[in-house]
Design a protein that fits this description.
- By secondary structure, the chain is an alpha/beta fold.
- The chain is built from five helices and seven strands, in the order H-E-E-H-E-H-E-H-E-H-E-E.
- It is about 30% helix and about 20% strand.
Length: about 170
């Protein structure tokens, strides 16, 4: 008798749906735009100079990229400056956020999870894969839990063969 004939995949028979957040990792390049490069004497932003920079800069270098906008200098930057950057980057970049690379990563996952058809998880037992080759921020795990809790029968973390229970509908 072949040993494979007796093999029963209990995980496959369990009805558990595995959700791999790594599949939602955006492969695009991540870059930081630091507005400190636009500060006059490293202290302040001059509107006329900044508007000229916005008009003449080659923004095509950000095409399709994921951009985090920061100011690493201890300076007062008016809100309108970030808004002007957003106007230029929004039609060019894949995604643009105010914040560091961690904030950008959170936003990329949030954006990807917006596109998921959550009805497929209605009254299902779901295990959220706990480890993988790609970096997944904690915020993505919190977001998926927030989205699954109202619809899933249960939520687990880990691998289908070894899970940590997170939520079970009463």
């Amino acid at each position: 008798m072949d040993i494979q004939e007796n093999f029963v995949n209990k995980v496959a028979q369990s009805g558990i749906i595995s959700f791999d957040l790594g599949k939602y990792y955006h492969a695009g390049e991540r870059v930081v735009y630091d507005i400190k490069e636009n500060l006059f004497q490293g202290l302040m932003l001059r509107e006329k100079d900044f508007r000229e920079f916005i008009k003449t800069n080659d923004w095509s270098v950000y095409a399709g990229k994921n951009v985090a906008i920061i100011c690493s200098a201890d300076a007062i930057v008016p809100t309108w400056a970030y808004m002007l950057l957003a106007v230029k980057l929004t039609p060019i970049a894949h995604l643009m956020v105010f914040g560091d690379l961690a904030a950008l990563e959170d936003a990329l996952f949030r954006d990807a999870l917006e596109k998921v058809d959550w009805t497929a998880f209605q009254e299902e037992r779901v295990v959220v894969k706990g480890c993988g080759d790609l970096p997944v921020p904690v915020a993505a795990y919190v977001e998926i839990t927030r989205r699954l809790q109202p619809i899933a029968k249960s939520i687990m973390y880990g691998e289908p063969c070894s899970t940590v229970p997170i939520y079970k509908k009463q």
